[in-house]
Design goal:
This protein is α/β, with parallel strands linked by helices. Helices cover 39% and strands 18% of the residues. The chain contains seven helices and seven strands, in the order βββαβαβαβαβααα. It has helices spanning 38-48, 70-81, 96-103, 115-132, 153-161, 170-177, 186-197; strands spanning 10-12, 18-20, 26-31, 53-59, 87-92, 107-112, 138-143. It is globular, with a radius of gyration of 18 Å.
Length: 200
């Protein structure tokens, strides 16, 4: 992960690489990702083509009860995006704009599924500019693909809680979940759920 990029021309990444930041566009895509869905994955894949570096930030909020802890959610996202070279994954427990400052990001990616999402995100985008302290920060809205409009983390959680249809075989359950979460993380998702919530 590259840190403290703001106002620098070149920095050294943690893996020893020298990164030239002249014209380097860094973006952040933040969310709880509880769990990460095919809708999230599609947005990451598309955003990665628009920016030089994209950070997927897993929000850690002690006051919010998530189905999976932050490190489990981070591991799932890492598996899902492992094939996209300019994407990094991190956990952050503060304001998203504070993380953006720490990595020199000036773009925040948000997914939009409907008019209600847009209304809410417009207000958040304005507030982020105020908190960031600069008009240079931009929120980039990406429309969700039509086939993902009904996909959400809450739907996946309900499927898990209801056993994905307990009369179905394990293979059938995996196939059902793969319509909502990336196939690469279905097994990890089931294992994590069983570990925390007994059995499916």
């Amino acid at each position: 992960m590259v840190r403290n990029l703001k106002n620098l021309k070149n920095v050294i990444a943690e893996d020893g690489r020298e990164v030239n930041l002249r014209g380097h566009r860094v973006a952040v895509f933040a969310g709880s990702f509880d769990p990460f869905t095919v809708g999230h994955w599609d947005l990451v894949k598309r955003a990665a083509t628009m920016f030089d570096s994209l950070y997927v930030v897993v929000a850690q909020n002690a006051s919010k009860k998530n189905m999976f802890d932050a490190e489990t959610r981070k591991a799932m996202v890492e598996d899902a995006v492992s094939g996209i070279p300019n994407v990094s994954v991190a956990v952050h427990d503060g304001l998203t704009v504070d993380f953006m400052k720490s990595v020199g990001a000036r773009y925040l990616v948000r997914g939009i599924r409907n008019a209600s999402d847009l209304d809410m995100e417009q207000a958040v985008a304005w507030n982020n500019k105020v908190i960031y302290g600069s008009a240079d920060i931009e929120t980039v809205f990406l429309m969700s693909a039509q086939e993902h409009l009904a996909v959400s983390s809450s739907v996946v959680r309900e499927l898990l809680k209801c056993g994905c249809g307990k009369e179905k075989s394990l293979a059938e359950r995996k196939n059902l979940l793969s319509k909502f979460v990336p196939k690469d993380i279905v097994r990890m998702l089931l294992i994590a759920f069983r570990k925390n919530y007994e059995t499916i």
